[in-house]
Amino acid sequence: MSIFKTVSKEEEDVQRHLDEVFSKIQTRDPHEKEFHQAVLTFFKSIKPTLVKNPTYLEHQILERLTEPERAITFRVPWVDDNGKVQINRGFRVQFNSAIGPYKGGLRFHPTVNMSIVKFLAFQQTFKNALTGQPIGGGKGGSDFDPKGKSDGEIMRFCQSFMTELVNYIGPHTDVPAGDIGVGAREIGYLFGQYKRLRGSFEAGVLTGKGIGYGGSLGRKEATGYGTVYFVQEMLKNEGHQLAGSKVVVSGSGNVSIYAMEKAIELGATVVACSDSDGYVYDEAGINLDTVKQLKEVECRRISDYVDSHPSATYVEDCTGLWSIPCDIALPCATQNEIDEAAAKQLVKNGVKVVAEGANMPSTPDAAEIFQEQDILFAPAMAVNAGGVAVSSLEMAQNSTFSSWSFQEVDEKLHEIMKNIYQSCIEAAEAHGEPGNFSVGATIAGFTKVADAMIAQGAV
Ligand code: NDP
């Protein structure tokens, strides 16, 4: 039986095609469940445009789009502080270069495997297209766990990782950045090793660099700020505003911290945030200076928040976060962190907006619940695109040997987020799904990539 709902004859034909392609993907790589999930969600969303434009099927666009142009795995040997050799696995998936050089972050986390990297690189392709910048899609990383490692170990790991990665990247071919476990420190070590191996200063090869050597002001804040700018547009369209609303944010990393910062600046109260061990609830509003000190400076656990804020509560269960009543939920930690039960709880507690700061944080069941219940729900592809958009602005500054002010970058980011919002709204409306941001974002991104692929022939 088909996994897609049927309505008309044209839809039936499209559906058969989607089923066939999806089945081939499952057969070919049966263990890649995160990648399957991303493809299935994507297929559901683009169905209306395939029905309207059969030319995409004639060009075998779906088969081509779901196969990465290149997927690299490599050994990463490094020596720990005890002199023992450790081995990790490195990945880079160069998914699609139809509209520009591959672009996407590196994730260092023990859960990283080919399925995770493929799902991230696949979604990155359409997200990047949606930004309006000339960048293709890629992603990479390693199953290396930076937690508990010394600075020297992190540096030696990054140097070894780059010693292999250098063979595949460059300012005009593939430009990595940070993601989970890869922040300014790691990008610094990776850039240093790239420069040494190449023997030239190619600033545009990595983004998220330190400001003193080619980084862009506003990049650190971009994903979190962009998330909140997108939410602001959603609320504005409904005649509401952020000021006075209660917000719950998962995680306490790069995306979370700057989403909290912008939400607070715009008058919202952030009542809870988390890490992978548990969450803190502070009814008076989370003190962001404390979170920054704990997470950005001291690399400590969110549980330590209550030491300086005794009226706050710490609960050792990171998923329990979603049972806290709020108007706006911003999942900013990791994939599949909101499941069906969490989504039901959020709806029951009266959530009005769910915007995905992290990549694929809602399971398909959870996303369906938000859509059925008419919650304002926006997917990662649109919501967290601000990070890569400003990475692209960093590349532009590097290539022209210029550096823009924070305000200039932030204004451009704000404009890009408004444009992304508009593209989503228009694409959703044009395909008979008004207000469906998942359909709007996916179709707007897909159309750009697919049209470029057709124009470039079977490559
Ligand atoms: P960070 O490493 O800076 O922070 C990740 C945060 O999520 C940490 O607080 C971490 O807690 C928490 N976390 C990780 N795994 C889990 C888990 N299984 N359950 C609960 N919490 C968890 O990463 P980023 O902020 O950079 O990235 C967060 C998300 O945003 C990812 O999905 C990433 O792909 C996406 N993203 C990031 C962009 C960027 O510019 N950084 C751009 C676009 C998307 P702990 O410290 O305990 O590990």
Ligand inventory reads: NADPH dihydro-nicotinamide-adenine-dinucleotide phosphate
Query: What separation lies between the terminal Cα atoms?
Result: 34 Å
Q: Segments where pLDDT lies below 50 for 5+ residues?
A: none
Count of folded domains? 3
Give me the number of helical elements.
17
DSSP strand tally:
12
The proportion of strand residues reads 5-15%
By CATH, the superfamily of the largest domain comes out as: NAD(P)-binding Rossmann-like Domain
Rg on CA atoms, Å: 21 Å
Query: Secondary-structure element order, as H and E?
Result: HHHHEEEHEHEHHEHEEHHEEHEHEHHHH
Overall pLDDT metric:
96
| Reported CATH architecture of the largest domain | 3-Layer(aba) Sandwich
Main β-sheet description: 7 strands, mixed
Give the helix/strand class.
Answer: alpha/beta
Helix-residue proportion: 40-55%
Major beta sheet, strand line-up: 9-8-7-6-10-11-12
